[in-house]
Prior knowledge:
The structure is a single chain. By secondary structure, the chain is α/β, with parallel strands linked by helices. The chain is globular. The protein is built from 14 helices and 14 strands. Strands 5-2-1-6-7-8-12-13 form an eight-stranded mixed β-sheet.
Amino acid sequence: MRYIIIGAGAVGGAIGGRLAGAGHEVVLVARGAHLAALREDGLRLTVPDGRHSYRLPAVEGPDELGALRADDVLVLAVKTQDTAAALAAWGPAPVTGGGTAAERLPLLCAQNGVEGQRLALRVFRHVYGVCVWLPATFVEPGRISAVCAPLTGILHLGRYPHGTDETVRRIAADLEKTRFLEAPVVPDVTRWQYAKLLSNLANALEAVSSVAGDRAGELYRRVRAEGEAVLDAAGIAYASAEEQRETRGHKVDPVPLDGAPRGGGSSWQSLTRGTGTIEADHLNGEIALLGRLHGVPTPLNELLQRLANTFAREHRAAGSMPVEELVRLADEAVAFVQESSAASS
Length: 345
């Protein structure tokens, strides 16, 4: 199988690099300066076991490849806000022997949150969910770092919305042949993704302020409690913290990497790179949406969603809001909801 990594940024680049290192055919899809760097110098991947460089085909879109192959696997690793454009570009791509990518090829959604695969299923027949535990950083165009060892990451895989099949088992086998990726195949991949979503609710907190210190930690616990209350009200199952810890063990422990600092998570990186967008609508915003559907107030997640979007739109520096100010705004948001509820009862 040939793997086409649509969005060869931090996570996509790390997956693509590890697959290439194990001898698999890989095509990287990127834009702008990153694409230019990939074409000129290759993909440079810094990991605990060393620095690797991979000279791989790099394209901006499907037209550069001609007809896709029947054994191609599409790995969608763009941020959720870029999903619709990627699906519009790749779904109609012709496949050798007839039909389109949307009709014939498997699409793996290696993304945070759960909305990307919902969008994909509107276009593609064969969609697979991925729960991504793979801390990685876009260091500069063409250069990616992934800090964990002994594994680079753990990727739970399954058909979306549920089930398994021979295709996903073959993909998992290829991932595990890298020796640096573990790929459990599960029939309930969304249960793992919703558990990861609860962890990702801290992304906006980290992006606008900081997750360090007791006050920030307590605020995150309140934000997560909102998320758990919403998932419980919606009847959505999610893996427990204990099950996640047992699964990870010490397989994906971060280690210091010289010349490749780990600055922050995906939302922090979006602000630091000044992309102008951020995925908060599909993380904290997912909790806000479910809260409105099921009658559960979510003032803290709504606040973080709003602040993260403002920071991205105004190109503010990551982590620039003092945590004391954020806690004050959070307390005011909760008080407003409580007062409004009391007034309407």
